Amino acid sequence: MRKKLLFVIGGIILAVGIVLGGIKLYRIQDRNQCGILLAFDDYNADNWAGYFDLFDEYGVKATFFICANEPTDFCYDALERGHEIAFHTAGHQELTALSEEEVYQQAIDPIEVFRDGGIELSTFAYPKGSRNEELDEKLLGHYKVLRGAYFLQITDKHQFKEGYVESLSLDNGNYSSQEQYEAQIDDILANLKAGKGRVVSLYSHAIGAGDWSITEDRLLYLLRKAKEMGLQFYTFQELQNW
Ligand SMILES: [Zn+2]
Questions:
Q1: FRET partner for 83 with CA separation of 20 to 30 A, picked from 11, 63, 75, 141?
Q2: What kind and span of H or E run contains 48?
Q3: Global pTM exceeds 0.85
Q4: 11 alpha carbon – ligand 1 mean position (Å)
């Protein structure tokens, strides 16, 4: 009888050990996982929403840095699909050219309006990447992360918890050919995979032709390659809560 009891207790201890070990292993894998923060700026709601199904197919959670005065139907649809709504000023103004009052109107006052609509804005992208130290300081009193617009930065995901981060534009206008685009994507993804817990922030404005968009072909190249290499897509808020 006592032998049987010891056997049962031993079994329970072993089972708990296996579960805890599994959880720990999962956490380490999660921490080491590399990925991409994919974003779209300005406001191209119909265009973006037309790609929601494709995003689902490739497990993409994207961040939409919108210019708007208040929450729109698109915002709620995007949130429901697991994407993030982030902010990019009310009227796409370059903040360095504005008075203090105008900075509040463009970048800070809308936070409350969105909050009243049930949307928490915690990430901000500077229109045209136009910024200075004073603005960073002011905005970081209201946002967790501020995003730039000009540079490639491949970094540990903890760097994305708070403060200023860079982002690379994948707009068609930045590439002279498909080959040049693919070579840069190959390079970036290989660099991500070479480390642990590395992420990169990439963005465009819409999907399609034109200098300020990314063609569907190029977007698909990125999504397929990322999937093939086991890279994950993160929203900015996901990493803020890491
Ligand atoms: Zn913009």
A1: 141
A2: helix 45-49
A3: yes
A4: 59
